[in-house]
């Protein structure tokens, strides 16, 4: 989650790399892209819009987790490092996400810096679940396709 307040929520999916190199769309950002240096699908909302996360100037207003914050993709790439670029985002209207969380539709856990810059995004979901305490950790062992259970 990047923002979640009374007006709604906005986030990106960290584990959805797409088969498109950062250099193909944002060539100036190739040198500072976190490996693998590919684009990510951030979510179904505005898939033609781009959003960046990474480490940058310490005076940035919106920090997400640790030194990771929003990246100005119109800015200077040399001011950033470990950048991930997302096509689209996930969005929720006022009260929508709160209702989904109350129904138990989401597992809510704290993020780590390593989650944003994971070099093996395909295994990220299981890694995040595995480090949780209690019953949530068991979901790390579930098959990817629950219908196979």
How would you explain this protein's 3D organization?
The protein is an alpha+beta fold and 149 residues long. It has one domain (3-148): VC0467-like. The protein has four helices and eight strands. The protein has helices at residues 22-25, 96-102, 113-116, 124-130; strands spanning 3-5, 8-11, 17-21, 38-41, 45-55, 63-65, 68-71, 81-92. Strands 1, 2, 3, 4, 5, 6, 7 and 8 form an eight-stranded mixed sheet that branches. β1 (3-5) and β2 (8-11) form a beta hairpin. It is globular and about 45 Å long. The two termini are 30 Å apart. The model has no long low-confidence stretch (mean pLDDT 91).
Summarize the structure.
With 149 residues, the protein is an alpha+beta fold. It contains four helices and eight strands, in the order βββαβββββααα.
Architecture blueprint of SSEs:
Blueprint: E1 3-5, E2 8-11, E3 17-21, H1 22-25, E4 38-41, E5 45-55, E6 63-65, E7 68-71, E8 81-92, H2 96-102, H3 113-116, H4 124-130
Mean pLDDT, to the nearest integer, reads: 91
CATH architecture: 3-Layer(aba) Sandwich
Question: How many strands, which pairing sense, and closed or not: the largest β-sheet?
Answer: 8 strands, mixed
Helix fraction bin: 10-25%
| Uncertain segments | none
CATH topology heading? VC0467-like
Sequence of secondary-structure elements? EEEHEEEEEHHH
């Amino acid at each position: 989650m990047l923002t979640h307040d009374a007006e709604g929520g906005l986030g990106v999916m960290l584990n959805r790399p797409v088969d498109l190199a950062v250099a193909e769309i944002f060539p100036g950002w190739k040198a500072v892209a976190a490996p693998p240096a590919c684009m990510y699908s951030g979510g179904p909302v505005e898939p033609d819009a781009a959003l960046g996360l990474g480490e940058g100037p310490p005076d940035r207003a919106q920090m997400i987790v640790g030194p990771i914050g929003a990246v100005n993709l119109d800015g200077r790439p040399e001011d950033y490092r470990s950048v991930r670029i997302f096509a689209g985002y996930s969005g929720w209207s006022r009260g929508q996400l709160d209702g989904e969380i109350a129904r138990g539709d989401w597992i809510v856990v704290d993020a780590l810096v390593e989650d944003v810059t994971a070099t093996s995004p395909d295994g990220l979901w299981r890694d995040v679940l595995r480090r949780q305490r209690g019953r949530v950790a068991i979901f790390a062992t579930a098959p990817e396709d629950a219908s196979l259970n």
